[in-house]
Amino acid sequence: MNSVERTDVLVIGSGFGGAIAAYHLAAGGAKVVILERGPWLSSNEFEHDFKLGSSYTRIFDFVVGDGMSVLGGNCVGGGSVVYFAAMPRAPRFVFERRGSIARRMWPAAIDRDTLDPWYDRVEESIPITRQGWDDVSYAGGLWAAACRHAGRTANPVPAAVDTSTCVNCNWMMAGCRFDAKQSLLFNYLPAALAHGAEIRPLHEVQRISRTDDGGYRVHYMHVHDEDYRLTEGGGTIDAKVIVLAAGAAATPVILQRSEPALGPMPYGVGRYFSGNGERLNTAVLNEDRVRDVLGLERGDGLAYAANQIGKGPTVANWDRLDGSLPEYTRYSLEQLYFPPGLGTILALTDGPEGSWFGPRKKEMLKRWQSWLIIFQMIEDDNEGVFGPPPERGNADRLSQQMLGIGRLSYKPTANTLSAWAMADADCKDILERDGLATVTPWTNDLVGAYTVHPLASCRIGDDPHTSALDDRHEVRGHPGIFVTDGSAVPGALTVNPAMTISALAERAIPGIVRAAQERGVEVTYGAPAPDGSTSGRRGAAHLVPSLMRK
What we know:
Mean pLDDT: 93
Radius of gyration: 23 Å
Strand content: 15-25%
Shape: globular
Low-confidence stretches: none
Largest sheet: 7 strands, mixed
């Protein structure tokens, strides 16, 4: 007779949404198991190259869809291991957005004021540096100088980076070997382990079904540790509560694949996907003009030649984050180091008809050290829709690691295209003044639009017709299943979303605890920050009773 493995709470994914839930539930006394599709790497295993088969390809998931491609984390720690550690809070106007549904997208219970205490809880748990101008990279300083020259303002971005240990190597996207980036490997996850949680890497969840006692059964497969196209058996785990945090490109796929066993899913599952309005521009700087116009000098005869130097996104222009402006005209522009590979392929040449290949591209590539990448985040229209799920996982795997073909369709509306065009024009206005640079956007012809911050494919809301989750992150019609990753964010934020994803996950915990209690789990809410700090807990205490309502 086969024994059945059981746990109180099964968490799917170990990024921001999964790690935060796992810590609080384990600290509250629940038995917690985390299933993570990717490998578990330590700092010394992060290789600083971009060769196929290196840790770089192991810890990323690049899924090509129809009109939109998604780059995400695929490892224990999820996106926190591979993101650029930018942690701004969403602007106040974001919570009043109406978007494509022509009425407020966010639940009435959430605005910037009610979310601020949860932002505070995150900031207490993940050390965030308010960088000064002495901390930013040379590239960030150049972007700020160009903004000032154009009559614009720019500021260092709050970042989860210990600047005292950062060596400015600019390999942050491939994982930090120097433990300077404060990923989840240093706070929520070790704290969850200390309270008895278990992490199982290379476990890819396929679907969820019900058990006879009213709980849930999670069906998974073991992924081969080198060739992700292969599996090595699988199994099931029964749980009373499920927390889905597999990412906005995978969470809806798991729910879609579970529909035959669980019953109909809310209409919003796999719809209203947002790429956070993201797009990249490449500026090829004129070194002489940078020196003569901006007065910048590195001291070795060079004005810039510094594309390889930086800490990730260090400086952003936020002039367009004004709540009085019309929707779809608000966005931020952020200096960003993007590594070779996609940047080389997708960067267009300048001219009336830019091209991603040919003689002009060859000349452009020779000047790679003079590149400055600008990352824009606009308000898109939540155009993405997921089709029927693939046979396994969230994509049909094409390569040994990283690359797959997904079922996401994204057709930009006039609102989105207009917002991108406005942001493109601003990039050119700032960086082409007085001949500083030539600026071109990346091409969408090869892989469509692209995002590193997928959002909203199972979003929270008050309207059952346009939101898959209620305002406590529970899947409508499926009590005991919660979603706490970027899927739950209603739409584009105009800034990097990690801080908001984390704050929403913190806010969701009291409701998850209450649901677990109702399902027979002996668990309480009230853990301090992972390091034992309690000021954030006190600051959010007045909001907890309403979130634990029946």
